[in-house]
Amino acid sequence: MTAAVSIRDLDIELGFGASRRLILDGVALDVPQGACFGLVGESGSGKSTVLRCIALLLRGWSGDIDINGRPVRDIPRAEYCRQVQMVFQDPYGSLHPRQSVATALFEPLRTHKLDRHQERAEAALADVGLPGDFLYRYPHELSGGQRQRVAIARALILDPSILLLDEPTSALDVSVQAEVLNLLSDLRTKRGLTYLLVSHDLAVIDHLCDQFAVMQHGRLLEVLPREAIANLQVTNDYSRSLIQASLDYDRAI
Amino acid sequence: MDDTVLLDIRNLSVAYRGEDGMVPAVRNVSFTLGRERLGIVGESGSGKSTIGRALLRLLPTAQITADRIQFGQHDLTRASERQMLDIRGRHMSMILQDPKFSLNPVRPVGDQVAEAFRIHHRCTRSEAKAKALKMLKAVRINDPERVYGLYPHEVSGGMGQRIMIAMMLIAGPEVIIADEPTSALDVTIRLDVLKLLDDLVTSRGSGLIMISHDLNLVRNFCDRVLIMYAGRIVEMLDARNMGAAQHPYTRGLMAAQPRIGGNRQPLAVLKRDPAWLEEKAP
Amino acid sequence: MTVSSNALPAAKASLRRTFRDEAGRMLRRLLSNPATAFGLCVIVILVLAAIFAPLLMTHNPLAQNLSNILKAPSAENWFGTDELGRDVYSRLIAGTRITLTIIGLVSIIVAPIGLVIGTTAGYFGGWYDTAMMRITDIFLSFPGLILSLAFVAALGPNLNNAIIAIALTSWPPIARLARAETLILRSADYISAAHLLGASPLRILVKSIVPMCLPSVLIRVTLSMATVILTAAGLGFLGLGAQPPTPEWGAMIATGRNYMLESWWLVTFPGAAILLVSLSFNLVGDGLRDVLDPKNR
């Protein structure tokens, strides 16, 4: 079976002049179809940059990114949008402040010339556990958790198979995080989605993912199975210290 | 731990002016602080940060009322702005979440630490510098001489937060309010910073108010914990007895937290009961 | 699902209602500031005066009466008469139409040009941005009045050319502003999301970026109206704007200047009108900034 996302030798440099720096250095990973794959690392390790490269929000990278076996740069734009979508960290920044939920959800349907806008939008809201009359609300009338649900509904409205999740719950309260994590896990089972999840919280990774990769300074150190967190079965020193720190923090400090 | 009461608060309420009338942020909160570590936990909007700011009177637009805010010999309900200037930093100080925003970007960090001392103590520049270097060493910065001359953008997040701690502790305050002191830091340095803060506070016999959204953190770093919901204290517990929490809100918060090595069952979802808004604090 | 679709019309109606409430709230906040309220009043009076000019005028603003020249304000001629015996009050009222024409045309030309150049430069970046911003810099490096003078001198002195000249000199600050806003917006997650959902750059610009730039552009245009009025009056004063006998305020001051010492009313009334209107636009611009600019909240 071809991998949903396959990355080889991904490099990217960002910045101008003297401050130009190699942000990603030879990143390679494979996300199997229907899996939930985690990316962990400290801030500045380049984990979000990997997502932005896959999402083509950053252009200047070199290497290969294949989506379902096809090089991402060969996939027509419209088709790409219907395969890969993304959910962002900040629920306050990911919805346009002057657009109602309806506008946010109808917009992609219009660009992709799909029919039955109202029906599809209501169905998308129902999928994320929001009533249909939320269509006529503005972002400032929603709580953080509701916004994140709308952002997930928007990402799912084109029925993609791969979802890139960039710290989807780290800006939320614990109780709201639990709701969103449950929702994400339900949606994956129901729709057979593939997740690539970036998080700094190993407890979240452990809760959702089957496999995860540890990143540091733009390099991917190793790919580990989920069990490696609880059992601390790691070879790399840095991964060990990262997991140890999370374990210490999570259990009685 | 002795029974000295550093801070005694009765019926503290804080309200903001909203579009239509006053909107309460904190409602009738009472607690005392001794030479101990007190955690205040709650979700966003619960009013936990507002308490810390109200104590230092850092809320220019809010309406603060209280029957009593006794801080040592000062009655903070009646203190003038001039007295507050003396209290802030010298007797009570605050560590904020992100050092990026609380350090002045155009001055070397060492100068800022030294200045924090000079504001409250008569001394020469060189004495203040010596004191600042000593303080930087106390927050376990290995080469204080070099760090002294760095600018805030040249230091990492963890280092920045140590510098903030140095700056806030240098004048020797009796009460330290830490508002989410480690939320902006990576997990690998969080523990170091927390331990450092803990050591300094305990060795100096100060009182610490640790404001956080993280139950796990306060449970392990504090002696007592207040749990806030919608501007009220719903439960007050010894940190050791967190497992025995009675209030459904506290229990819900604990259950909602994913744990490493958990069973991956759907997480317990907190069901909010409107009655929590009105019930009396214990 | 049926329950929620029944609730939809009601929800839609409430959406419209919140919209109206929002507008009402905005207006109330505008009026709660006395300075802004004053400015708004003056502008409303200006517009009303222009609409009802024929009714308000006591004399034909162009009719000369050589037996009644340079008369001081009186019951017959409220603001006196000029050197050709024309009624200053009627000319002032007639001048409101010219002032409003200038303001209206300039803002209709300037706002779209500034928005298009600024947002595209900010969004696409690269060599296009560099080229556009250098052109903007060239325009910005000349004082507005001097540049307008040069344009009018080249195009020939009349009111329409003056309007074109003023428009040509007032778009650069707006383009700059729109570009700065776009640079910030470009990296917002909701723009990334729109991009990922397949929206074309043009669609992103029109649907997502321009609506976010509009408030600050509106503030900027209102504030620059004060300068536009002054520049127009300046051009009129120098004989390069509206030509006699058109009752343009700047031109009125220019001719009145010759008789200023003995007939103070010839310069005082048009001068006061210019001052009042440009001040009012400034005040309204400031008030709009308080209401619209999210940074001030």
CATH topology of one domain in chain C: MetI-like fold
Number of strands of chain A: 10
Low-confidence stretches of chain A: none
Broad shape of chain A:
globular
Relative strand content of chain A = 15-25%
Widest β-sheet, arrangement of strands of chain A: 6-7-8-3-9-10
Going by helix content, strand content and strand pairing, the class of chain A is alpha/beta
Quaternary organization: heterotrimer
Q: What's the CATH architecture of one domain in chain C?
A: Orthogonal Bundle
- Figure out the total of helices of chain C: 11
What proportion of the residues of chain A is helical, as a percent range?
A: 25-40%
Distance between the termini of chain C: 39 Å
Write down the secondary-structure element order of chain A. Answer: EEEHEEHEHHHEHEHEEHH
The chain pair with the largest interface is: A-B, 34 and 31 residues
Work out the helix count of chain A: 9
Mean pLDDT of chain A: 91
Could you name the CATH class of chain A?
Alpha Beta
Kindly report the name of the CATH homologous superfamily of one domain in chain C: MetI-like
The CATH architecture of chain A can be named as 3-Layer(aba) Sandwich
Q: What features would you highlight for this structure?
A:
heterotrimer; B: 282 residues; alpha/beta; Rossmann fold; 2 domains; 5-stranded antiparallel sheet; 35% helix; C: 297 residues; mainly alpha; MetI-like fold; 11 helices
What report would you give on this structure?
- The complex is a heterotrimer of chains A (253), B (282) and C (297).
- Chain A has helices at 47-54, 77-81, 101-111, 117-127, 144-156, 174-191, 202-208, 227-231, 237-250, and strands at 5-14, 21-31, 36-40, 62-67, 70-71, 84-87, 162-166, 194-198, 211-216, 219-225.
- With 253 residues, chain A is of the alpha/beta class.
- Chain A has one domain (5-250): P-loop containing nucleotide triphosphate hydrolases (Rossmann fold, 3-Layer(aba) Sandwich), CATH 3.40.50.
- In chain A, the strands form two sheets. Chain A has a six-stranded mixed sheet, with helices on both faces. Chain A has a four-stranded antiparallel sheet with strand order 2-1-4-5, covered by helices on one side.
- By secondary structure, chain B is of the alpha/beta class.
- In chain B, strand 5 and strand 6 form a beta hairpin.
- Chain B folds into two domains: 1-91 and 174-192 and 201-282, Rossmann fold (3-Layer(aba) Sandwich); 101-172, no CATH class.
- Helices cover 35% and strands 24% of the residues of chain B.
- Chain B has a six-stranded mixed sheet with strand order 7-8-9-3-10-11, with helices on both faces.
- With 297 residues, chain C is mainly α.
- Chain C is 76% helix and 0% strand.
- Chain C has helices at 2-32, 34-51, 53-56, 88-124, 126-140, 144-155, 159-186, 189-196, 201-237, 249-256, 265-292.
- In chain C, helix 4 packs parallel to helix 7 and helix 9 (201-237) runs parallel beside helix 10 (249-256).
- The model of chain C is unreliable at 1-6 (pLDDT under 50).
